[in-house]
């Protein structure tokens, strides 16, 4: 009886040691490439401390977190203009592709002013930048996602660079907020 118990204990101990090794072997090598920290060249310009820092943004819902980041002030103005602050702050597990101020600056001023003055068109454009699920960097490798606007956007990876709809580059990705993920992009997306 003691011999049987000793063998069973040894077998359980071996299984307990082997299982984690098998799970780590079975996990895709790419799984943790960017998941631990935000990535991209623009992440270096995020404040190191305070409400606009990565740590500060993680404590706030997405619209509030964006309002603390100076590089997203045009987006925040547009979100307020469209009346979407509460919608974004109260949503659960969303992903926002957030155009920078420079992305909005690519749009001729007269056109941008026209868009900002048309709440219906502005809402369509902004909700096209929001996906109703939390997207991981691995899903961005080759993904297609339905937006809150109702259209689809696609993502692809080329080396360490991710693009959205073949045009916008993610310049600071996988930024966590209290209710979702933000991927900062360099071009405003147009609903298809």
| Major beta-sheet overview | 7 strands, mixed
Helix-and-strand structural type: alpha+beta
Which strand-content bin applies to the residues?
A: 15-25%
**CATH hierarchy, class:** Mainly Beta
Question: Layout of SSEs?
Answer:
Layout: H1 2-26, H2 54-58, H3 62-67, H4 73-82, H5 85-90, E1 94-99, H6 101-105, H7 109-117, H8 119-127, E2 130-131, H9 137-140, E3 142-146, E4 152-158, E5 161-164, E6 168-177, E7 180-185
Parallel strand pairs: 1-7
Antiparallel strand pairs: 1-2, 3-4, 4-5, 5-6, 6-7
Helix pairs in contact: 4-8
Summarize the structure.
The chain has helices at 2-26, 54-58, 62-67, 73-82, 85-90, 101-105, 109-117, 119-127, 137-140; strands at 94-99, 130-131, 142-146, 152-158, 161-164, 168-177, 180-185. With 192 residues, the protein is an alpha+beta fold.
Report on the architecture of this protein.
The protein is α+β, with helices and mostly antiparallel strands. The protein has a single domain (30-185), classed as FAS1 domain. 41% of the residues lie in helices and 21% in strands. It contains nine helices and seven strands; from the N terminus they run αααααβαααβαβββββ. Strands 2-1-7-6-5-4-3 form a seven-stranded mixed sheet. The radius of gyration is 21 Å and the shape is globular.
């Amino acid at each position: 009886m003691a011999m049987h118990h000793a063998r069973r204990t040894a077998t359980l101990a071996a299984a307990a040691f082997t299982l984690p090794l098998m799970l780590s072997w079975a996990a895709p090598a790419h799984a943790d490439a960017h998941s631990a920290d935000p990535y991209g060249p623009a992440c270096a310009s995020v404040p190191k401390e305070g409400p606009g820092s990565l740590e500060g943004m993680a404590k706030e819902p997405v619209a509030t977190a964006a309002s603390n980041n100076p590089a997203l002030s045009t987006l925040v103005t547009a979100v307020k203009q469209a009346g979407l602050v509460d919608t974004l702050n109260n949503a659960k597990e969303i992903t926002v592709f957030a155009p920078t101020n420079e992305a909005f600056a690519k749009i001729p001023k007269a056109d941008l002013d026209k868009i900002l003055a048309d709440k219906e068109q502005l809402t369509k454009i902004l909700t096209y930048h929001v996906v109703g699920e939390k997207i991981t960097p691995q899903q961005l490798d080759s993904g297609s996602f339905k937006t809150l606007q109702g259209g689809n956007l696609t993502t692809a990876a080329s080396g360490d660079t991710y693009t959205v709809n073949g045009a916008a580059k993610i310049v600071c990705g996988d930024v966590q907020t209290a209710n979702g993920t933000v991927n900062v992009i360099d071009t405003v997306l147009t609903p298809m």
